[in-house]
């Protein structure tokens, strides 16, 4: 029995369970309702349907998931004990590739045999797969019936089917949020572990407060002491991502959102908002080329013309400006949504006091929409910090500690990518430095987020 | 309280000046807003304009008509037994180059694309009878001629183009091949389909994972989780995920999906899962903000007539929050669509010449394809790169189109 | 469920597509061969070539034997002893080494540029972080290095420290320039580490600009900035000779001729490394290698793509390696 | 202070009881030791100055205070003898049985029809579209809104006038046919005619449902209720037969309030 | 039908006039040819059944209808003889001069203090912090809220009870010292004492400000107003001296409504 067939069969069973349970509940409840008391009936018949359908499907599906992982091993064991398998070579990879090929032919994933030996194994494979497939299907069906029957007997007018089904919904919501949390934990754990190894090679103080960054010299055996000073990277990150890019993105994004929600006519807003959102989707290579070949040379010429001779053709300013443009939608769209969500009565209240539209926006709407606005700005900063391509192409890779926006700087993320791609040895300080950088970045943004959360909590103005 | 205030004297100079100032501020504010919108739009227009300028040429290709006498050519082919195998052994490249030189002169071999013989192969396969005829076949021009025909070539090549044009042998037409072929090494023959399909599959996986999980997480945290330090920690750390450099997600994908779960390398499945990790926080954050801004009185109203918390959420809160959630989804997916770094880690920065058949087949995606082409030696790839960018943007538009439609549909003011 | 396509559960899995990883320099040639291989072998699936940089490729290549590990590593330098040992440790015992051709490490400037002429010594003195161990590099303009050069600021766009190309720059040019000082030669025998650091470390004050792994970007930046010079593979120079001029090293220009004969100081070999254990398991692997051999000659398809063919005797040796699948002896590696 | 409920005019079935209920918003106590019985056959009116806790207490009766994070309820409240704060209580069912009309009209941003149909739908009270239409019409009629909106049932409920919105919310609450109806100043936004209709509705519902109504309008309390509870500063000052309270209050504070001699 | 305003009890200065005003929401006409004069020394009450257009008309008087996208106003409305819909009219100033209290309380999600201080701040009516404090206290006192909130001026205005919120909004409106005050059912959420305070405030303000009040409470209309306008289905049915309207309505419809014999 094939996968899709079982799937269809189960889906059919589930549907039948749903319909029959619903019908039963409907009938029983009709009787109970007629007899008076209101709490004699608890859940809508549909919930009974779902309850029984879920009992039919979930145990069987769980079983099949387990079976799908167990049965290939059983199949292989069966095949290996067949006579044709005795001719297999002892060497691991050839052996497994022959087996794999035979399996592929047996399941129809591959047409002809590349290795003659595998042809003989096709039949044993077919047999074994058929055997275990059937066994699995039968067991799954039995489980489905058992589950369904158990649940079906519980259908009573006052049975709290809705509560059960909703508990499952809640459980799945919980599991979903756990997944998000597990991702975080996974990232933190891996960062922590590798950083720990890094810090056993490099003094954390040197790393955190050193002002010289040149990991390749460390890789060349020049010593770890003054090769891993990450301050220039932190500064570069802040300079490009949190200062220059934000100087572009926050005013443009926020003012665009304000204009579109409060001043522009709704049709304009309907078109402009998605149009601006396209800025976030232009691939960063494109921005990179744009920054490196159009903006950066122009900025350098400008800097030279105003007498900054040291201006380099790679500049923090070029990368930051273009990055700022890229993240405008993060600010504008999120701010737009939260401003639009502030109830009309708030606006009316302010306008009726004789406030101008801009006063209403600045003093009433923005404070009420603060969480969304701050959320958008945080996302934008995050995105700017995480960006690499533009920096590589337009700001260069040299770790300078400078206030000069026309100088070349680099960022933490860019260095992480540089360290992790290309030559990588997962036991050298050079590669591990990427994790330490990642960890510091994580901690810094964490602090940033905590502060933002506090600020929002303090200044948020909850309406309604 | 003795001070009796009289109605404010709005006609006094002080008040008049004040009002004038406020109006000036109002106008300024409004102008700044307009300016911001226009400036942002101008950036976009500029980008689009430049890309269209460079990229539209990528959608056309130059072809040269060549008369080939199949019967007389030294083809090792039996018209009754045309198989793929026979064709690949039929010495077609040689035959093509002979035919071209015979028809157009000694240097003409450089005028047609080195892979022009594929056209012959396909023609023969489609109609074996051609082997007994003389037929005019239009072959793709080489990069040099193609560029010259588009006004961007060396003087010699341009002279050749003029000559061929004069003879009526040179045509420029829409490059369907670009939309149907996959990666290759000859810019006149490459296409975007493989990468497009890869992106499509990857985005489907990303959306299928990140949207439900993101929305569910946002709902759980905002509506059901008890507000305490634990939820604060969760909130902050999810916000923080958005700031984790994307390549770190690539590392996570590498170690979990490839090294631990043994999922196939370079596959859309793994790419999609990795990008989903990255997109999810954006959806969660936007979703929570959107959920927060649903007025509590709506929840009260529903609870008050006996809706269960789950019903309140799915019947009222979610529909009202959907526009905001979709905004998050749009920008999250847009970012995922344009992302390359994490995909490097899981092997999607690769030459993959066959379009993926499913989510477990090796695949590449549009931004990676763009990145790879932008680093190609041959200049013929420059316009292909821009053309691929246009395709990516169209993809982006189409993807956002649906979400935007839904968003506009659900948006309500109250 | 899972486990149906690639991993055959207990069977360990199989793969019907060749996988190669590694150098971005070799990447265009590998893809060209892959294409030819498919065209010449009807029904074969196209090999998958990943561009990870030489070091990254080696790392993946040496991770083990089996369907989930690549079959081939492309390299723009020879495998290192440390990498070879890593391979051995992970059970990748038998490795076949094939030199597929030669590449030149070209130095170029815009054709509106000053027309520099360089030597390894000048390059070393201009780019070293600490020339001859005598303290940080203070040179600002080319004429600070050598009075015969024009008084324009030093500005070099080159590959990042993670690429094989950068390794080649260090080995072929910088070390050579460095050794012009006999003291350095002596240092090499005394203290290998310090020698390496002194001779191959590149300055980080912005005179040398890491430009990611995107050589076209360097080309375009040179076009915008006529006083800068760029370092990249020979094929880019060849393709962009309408915009760029070659900068001769030691008076030798990078041309097909000089690179292939090895007269050009920046000439370097390109390799592929193949797992012998995969030869039997992966369909078409032998055919793929044959496709290399058929196309790496002086008039072959690879030279059309900008590769420089290896000298006759090297090609013969490589062809032999492809045929006999002779295994690399790790003891001679550095 | 008198907390003990008295036996009232018609001997009736007690529907809800509250015993020693305290409600806190954070540290602030909004309800102080209130005990009260709500009858099946009598309409109970809560009166008292603004901010005295009427809404707060009303919300404890169907556990709407659960939704205010800072709110905490102490004491016992029963419905048909069952403690509604017991963990076995199904809050959802409780709220379906104890319906509520809020002080500020809060229609869903859906159509008028959907606003009314929502409750019957989730509780499965209609067997089909036609049935639902009937329920919607009946509820709107009872709420005195039918004539005004019958031609625009599919317009948004939020585009109605203030009074119309409030009547919509009343219609929405009675569409579920609850056993107890809690009305928090249902007529404050209504004109006399609409008010009269609602009062008529209350009269009509009386006996079938237990009804609690918060009102600032003494005349209204006198007109519609049989029992009146007077709250002051979170305390239940006096609770008794409406006519007694209005004609012969036992407490000084009640008297002062009733006669408007307060504050 | 009588549209012409009559000369009234005390000869007074006319503050606002409306002539042939029509208001449409999209296609639906909500106000039909209303003409009315608002006096400086008289309080004008708007009465009429729910949904008849009282709020709509009130909102045309300070152009709050501008904020409703679908609303369209025809006709002339003047303030001190100036057409408020003229393009030369300064809407901001207009709204500062014609203050408004809404039907649904809508305090800003700010502290109580900030809610009151908002208007004086934007109009520059306070010369400093101390001055502002005085204005806030005075406004809250007048709105009858001071004693309840004086200890928590920095709590959010949204955490007040419904009646408190409404009084906060009244306080907010008078803090700007407007010339005309439009009140849309200001007392509907208030208890008798608070209502009495507001009525007292109205009495106090009368003469200095022109006051328009929408109310459903006939007694209130009779108590506080000198002139009453009765609206029905968007039309101004009758407008005249309050005592006349209540004792001797000329129109049948008015009489029916006043005596509750409607619908
Ligand atoms: N969410 C809340 N948080 C804190 N305090 C609150 C909250 N809601 C109400 N209060 C306070 O609790 C007290 C009682 O409020 P409640 O809303 O019950 O009054 P009420 O009697 O209904 O008044 P009104 O007639 O004005 O509606 C008031 O002092 C009010 O300010
Ligand atoms: N924003 C709107 N869009 C469309 N119609 C509206 C809107 N606001 C009000 N209406 C309609 O206009 C008519 C008049 O409404 P208005 O709010 O002026 O009534 P009202 O006299 O204030 O009633 P109430 O006493 O119930 O507040 C009503 O039929 C109402 O449904
Ligand atoms: Mg209340
Ligand atoms: Mg109204
Ligand atoms: O990619 P590389 O050839 O420079 O390693």
TrEMBL record, chain A:
Keyword field contains NAD: no
This protein's source sits in the domain of life called: Bacteria
GO cellular component terms, alphabetically, are: plasma membrane
> What are the transmembrane regions?
6-26, 47-68, 132-152, 173-193, 233-255, 276-296, 316-343, 364-385, 432-456
Which Gene Ontology MF annotations are present? phosphate transmembrane transporter activity
Cited Gene3D superfamilies: MetI-like (1.10.3720.10)
UniProt keywords (A-Z) are:
Cell inner membrane, Cell membrane, Membrane, Phosphate transport, Transmembrane, Transmembrane helix, Transport
Q: Output this protein's name.
A: Phosphate transport system permease protein
Which species is listed as the source? Sphingobium herbicidovorans (strain ATCC 700291 / DSM 11019 / CCUG 56400 / KCTC 2939 / LMG 18315 / NBRC 16415 / MH)
From TrEMBL, chain B:
Give the InterPro entries listed for this entry: DUF3333 (IPR024573), MetI-like (IPR000515), MetI-like_sf (IPR035906), Phosphate_PstA (IPR005672)
Q: Which residues are listed as membrane-spanning?
A: 31-52, 200-221, 241-261, 267-291, 312-334, 387-406
* A Gene Ontology term for the protein's cellular component: plasma membrane
What subcellular locations does the record give? Cell inner membrane; Cell membrane
Leader peptide range in chain numbering: none
Q: Which GO terms describe its molecular function?
A: phosphate transmembrane transporter activity
Q: In the UniProt record, does the keyword Transport occur?
A: yes
GO annotations under biological process?
A: phosphate ion transmembrane transport
For membrane topology, the record states: Multi-pass membrane protein
Task: Name the predominant localization.
Answer: membrane
Tell whether Cell wall biogenesis/degradation is among the UniProt keywords: no
Domain ABC transmembrane type-1: from-to ranges: 196-403
Q: What does the UniProt keyword field contain?
A: Cell membrane, Membrane, Transmembrane, Transmembrane helix, Transport
Q: Which family does it belong to?
A: Belongs to the binding-protein-dependent transport system permease family. CysTW subfamily.
Output this protein's name: Phosphate transport system permease protein PstA
Q: Which organism is it from?
A: Sphingobium herbicidovorans (strain ATCC 700291 / DSM 11019 / CCUG 56400 / KCTC 2939 / LMG 18315 / NBRC 16415 / MH) (Sphingomonas herbicidovorans)
From TrEMBL, chains D, E:
Q: What class of enzyme is it?
A: hydrolase
Q: What is this protein called?
A: Phosphate import ATP-binding protein PstB
The record's subcellular locations are: Cell inner membrane
InterPro entries reported in the protein's UniProt record: AAA+_ATPase, ABC_transporter-like_ATP-bd, ABC_transporter-like_CS, P-loop_NTPase, PstB-like
Is Ribosomal protein among this UniProt entry's keywords? no
Name the membrane topology term.
Peripheral membrane protein
Domain ABC transporter residue range list: 16-258
What does the UniProt function comment say about this protein? Part of the ABC transporter complex PstSACB involved in phosphate import. Responsible for energy coupling to the transport system.
Q: Give the signal sequence positions.
A: none
| NCBIfam families registered for this protein in UniProt | 3a0107s01c2 (TIGR00972)
GO molecular function term, any single one = ATP binding
Q: What is its main location?
A: membrane
- Reported EC number(s) for this entry are 3.6.3.27
Q: Which GO terms describe its cellular component?
A: plasma membrane
Which example biological process does GO assign this protein?
A: phosphate ion transmembrane transport
Q: Which organism is it from?
A: Sphingobium herbicidovorans (strain ATCC 700291 / DSM 11019 / CCUG 56400 / KCTC 2939 / LMG 18315 / NBRC 16415 / MH)
Q: Which UniProt keywords apply?
A: ATP-binding, Cell membrane, Hydrolase, Membrane, Nucleotide-binding, Phosphate transport, Translocase, Transport
């Amino acid at each position: 029995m094939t996968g899709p067939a079982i799937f269809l069969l189960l889906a059919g069973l589930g549907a039948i369970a749903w319909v029959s349970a619903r019908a039963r509940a409907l009938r029983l409840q009709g009787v109970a309702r007629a007899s008076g008391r209101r709490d004699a009936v608890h859940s809508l018949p549909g919930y009974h349907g779902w309850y029984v359908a879920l009992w039919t499907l979930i145990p069987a599906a769980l079983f099949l998931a387990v079976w799908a992982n167990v049965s290939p091993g059983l199949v292989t064991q069966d095949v290996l004990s067949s006579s044709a398998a005795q001719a297999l070579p002892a060497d691991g990879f050839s052996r497994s590739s022959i087996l794999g090929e035979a399996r592929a032919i047996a399941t129809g994933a591959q047409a002809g045999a590349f290795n003659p030996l595998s042809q003989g194994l096709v039949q044993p494979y077919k047999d074994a797969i058929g055997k275990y497939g059937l066994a699995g299907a039968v067991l799954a069906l039995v489980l489905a019936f058992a589950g369904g029957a158990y649940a079906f007997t519980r259908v009573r007018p006052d049975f709290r089917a809705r509560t059960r089904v909703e508990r499952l919904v809640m459980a799945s919501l919980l599991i979903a949020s756990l997944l998000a949390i597990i991702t975080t934990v996974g990232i933190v754990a891996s960062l922590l572990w590798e950083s720990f190894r890094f810090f056993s090679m490099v003094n954390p103080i040197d790393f955190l407060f050193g002002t010289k960054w040149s990991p390749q010299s460390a890789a060349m055996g020049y010593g770890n002491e003054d090769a891993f000073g990450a301050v220039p990277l932190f500064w570069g990150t802040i300079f490009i991502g949190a200062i220059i890019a934000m100087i572009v993105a926050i005013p443009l994004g926020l003012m665009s959102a304000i204009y579109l929600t409060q001043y522009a006519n709704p049709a304009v807003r309907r078109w402009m908002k998605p149009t601006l959102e396209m800025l976030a989707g232009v691939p960063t290579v494109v921005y990179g080329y744009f920054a490196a070949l159009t903006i950066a040379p122009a900025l350098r010429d400008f800097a030279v013309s105003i007498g900054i001779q040291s201006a380099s053709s790679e500049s923090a300013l070029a990368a930051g400006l273009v990055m700022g443009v890229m993240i405008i939608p993060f600010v504008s769209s999120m701010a737009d949504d939260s401003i639009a969500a502030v109830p009309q009565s708030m606006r009316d209240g302010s306008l009726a006091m004789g406030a101008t539209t801009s006063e209403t926006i600045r003093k009433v709407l923005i404070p009420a929409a603060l969480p969304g606005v701050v959320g958008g700005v945080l996302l934008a900063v995050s995105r700017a910090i995480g960006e690499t391509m533009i920096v590589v192409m337009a700001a260069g890779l040299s770790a300078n500690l400078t206030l000069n926006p026309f100088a070349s700087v680099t960022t933490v993320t860019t260095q992480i990518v540089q360290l992790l791609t290309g030559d990588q040895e997962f036991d050298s300080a050079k590669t591990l430095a990427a994790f330490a950088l990642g960890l510091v970045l994580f901690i810094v943004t964490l602090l940033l987020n905590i502060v933002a959360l506090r600020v929002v909590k303090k200044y948020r103005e909850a309406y309604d | 309280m003795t001070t009796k205030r009289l109605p404010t004297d709005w006609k006094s100079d002080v008040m008049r000046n004040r009002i004038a100032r406020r109006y000036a501020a109002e106008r300024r504010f409004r102008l700044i807003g307009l300016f911001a919108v226009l400036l942002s739009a101008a950036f976009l227009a500029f980008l689009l304009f430049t890309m269209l300028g460079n990229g539209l040429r990528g959608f056309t290709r130059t072809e040269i008509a060549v008369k080939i006498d199949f019967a007389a050519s030294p083809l090792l082919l039996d018209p009754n037994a045309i198989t793929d195998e026979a064709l690949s052994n039929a010495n077609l490249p040689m035959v093509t180059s002979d035919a071209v030189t015979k028809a157009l002169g000694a240097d003409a071999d450089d005028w047609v694309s080195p892979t022009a013989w594929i056209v012959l192969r396909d023609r023969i396969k489609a109609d074996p009878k051609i082997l007994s005829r003389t037929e005019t076949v239009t072959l793709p021009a080489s990069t040099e001629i193609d560029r010259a025909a588009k006004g961007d070539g060396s003087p010699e090549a341009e002279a050749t183009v003029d000559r061929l044009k004069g003879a009526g042998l040179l045509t420029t037409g829409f490059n369907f091949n670009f939309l149907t072929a996959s990666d290759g090494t000859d810019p006149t023959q490459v296409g975007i389909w493989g990468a497009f399909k890869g992106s499509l599959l990857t985005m489907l996986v990303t959306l299928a994972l990140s949207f439900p999980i993101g929305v569910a997480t946002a709902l759980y945290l905002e509506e059901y989780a008890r507000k305490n330090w634990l939820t604060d920690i969760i909130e902050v750390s999810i916000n923080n995920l958005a700031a984790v450099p994307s390549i770190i997600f690539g590392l996570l994908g590498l170690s979990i999906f490839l090294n631990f779960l043994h999922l196939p390398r370079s596959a859309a499945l793994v790419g999609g899962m990795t990008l989903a990790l990255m997109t999810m926080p954006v959806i969660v954050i936007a979703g929570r903000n959107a959920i927060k801004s649903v007025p509590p009185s709506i929840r009260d109203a529903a609870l008050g007539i006996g809706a269960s918390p789950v019903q309140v959420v799915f019947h009222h809160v979610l529909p009202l929050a959907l526009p905001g959630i979709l905004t998050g989804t749009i920008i999250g997916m847009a970012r995922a669509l344009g992302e390359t770094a994490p995909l490097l880690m899981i092997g999607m920065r690769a030459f993959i010449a066959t379009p993926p058949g499913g989510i477990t087949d090796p695949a590449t995606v549009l931004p990676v394809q763009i990145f790879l082409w932008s680093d190609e030696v041959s200049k013929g790839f420059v316009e292909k790169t821009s053309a691929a960018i246009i395709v990516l943007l169209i993809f982006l538009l189409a993807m956002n189109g649906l979400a935007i439609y839904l968003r506009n549909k659900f948006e309500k003011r109250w | 469920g899972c486990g149906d396509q690639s991993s055959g559960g207990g069977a360990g899995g199989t793969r019907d597509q060749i996988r190669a990883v590694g150098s971005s320099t070799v990447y265009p040639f590998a893809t060209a061969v892959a294409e030819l291989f498919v065209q010449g072998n009807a029904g074969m699936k196209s090999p998958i070539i990943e561009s990870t940089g030489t070091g990254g490729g080696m790392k993946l290549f040496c991770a083990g034997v089996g369907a989930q590990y690549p079959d081939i590593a492309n390299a723009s330098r020879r495998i290192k002893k440390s990498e070879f040992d890593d391979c051995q440790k992970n059970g990748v015992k038998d490795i076949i080494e094939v030199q597929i051709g030669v590449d030149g490490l070209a130095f170029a400037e815009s054709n509106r540029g000053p027309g520099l002429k360089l030597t390894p010594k000048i390059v070393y003195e201009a780019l070293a972080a600490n020339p001859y161990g005598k303290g940080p590099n203070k040179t600002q303009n080319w004429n600070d290095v050598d009075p015969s050069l024009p008084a324009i600021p030093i500005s070099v766009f080159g590959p990042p420290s993670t690429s094989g190309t950068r390794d080649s720059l260090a080995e072929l040019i910088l070390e050579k320039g460095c050794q012009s000082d006999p003291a350095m030669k002596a240092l090499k025998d005394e203290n290998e580490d310090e020698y390496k650091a002194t001779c191959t470390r590149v300055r980080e004050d912005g005179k040398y600009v890491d430009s990611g792994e995107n050589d076209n970007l360097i080309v375009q930046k040179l076009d915008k900035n006529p006083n800068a010079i760029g370092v990249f593979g020979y094929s880019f120079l060849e393709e962009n000779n309408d915009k760029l001029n070659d900068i001769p090293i030691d008076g030798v220009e990078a041309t097909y001729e000089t690179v292939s004969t090895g007269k050009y100081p920046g000439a370097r070999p390109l390799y592929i490394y193949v797992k012998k254990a995969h030869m039997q398991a992966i369909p078409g692997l032998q055919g793929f290698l044959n496709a290399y051999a058929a196309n790496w000659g002086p008039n072959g398809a690879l030279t059309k793509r900008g590769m420089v063919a290896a000298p006759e005797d090297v090609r013969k040796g490589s062809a032999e390696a492809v045929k006999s699948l002779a295994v690399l002896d790790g003891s001679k590696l550095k | 202070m008198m907390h003990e409920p008295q036996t009232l005019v018609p001997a009736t079935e007690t529907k809800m009881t509250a015993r020693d209920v305290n409600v806190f918003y954070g540290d602030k106590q909004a309800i102080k030791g209130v005990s009260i019985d709500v009858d099946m056959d009598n309409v109970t009116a809560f009166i008292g100055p603004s901010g005295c806790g009427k809404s707060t207490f009303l919300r404890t009766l169907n556990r709407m205070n659960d939704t205010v994070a800072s709110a905490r309820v102490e004491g016992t409240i029963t419905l048909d003898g069952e403690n509604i704060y017991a963990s076995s209580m199904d809050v959802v069912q409780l709220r379906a049985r104890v319906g509520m009309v809020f002080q500020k009209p809060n229609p869903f941003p859906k159509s008028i029809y959907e606003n009314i149909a929502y409750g019957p739908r989730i509780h499965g009270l209609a067997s089909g579209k036609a049935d639902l239409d009937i329920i919607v019409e009946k509820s709107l009629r009872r709420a005195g809104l039918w004539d005004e909106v019958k031609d625009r049932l599919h317009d948004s409920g939020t585009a109605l006038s203030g009074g119309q919105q409030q009547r919509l919310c009343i219609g929405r609450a009675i569409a579920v046919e609850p056993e107890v109806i809690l009305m928090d100043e249902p007529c404050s936004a209504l004109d006399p005619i609409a008010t009269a209709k609602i009062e008529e509705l209350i009269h009509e519902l009386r006996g079938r449902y237990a009804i609690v109504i918060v009102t600032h309008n003494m005349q209204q309390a006198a007109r519609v209720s049989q029992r009146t509870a007077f709250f002051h500063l979170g305390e239940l000052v006096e609770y008794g037969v409406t006519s007694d309270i209005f004609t012969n209050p036992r407490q000084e504070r009640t008297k002062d309030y009733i006669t408007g001699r307060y504050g």
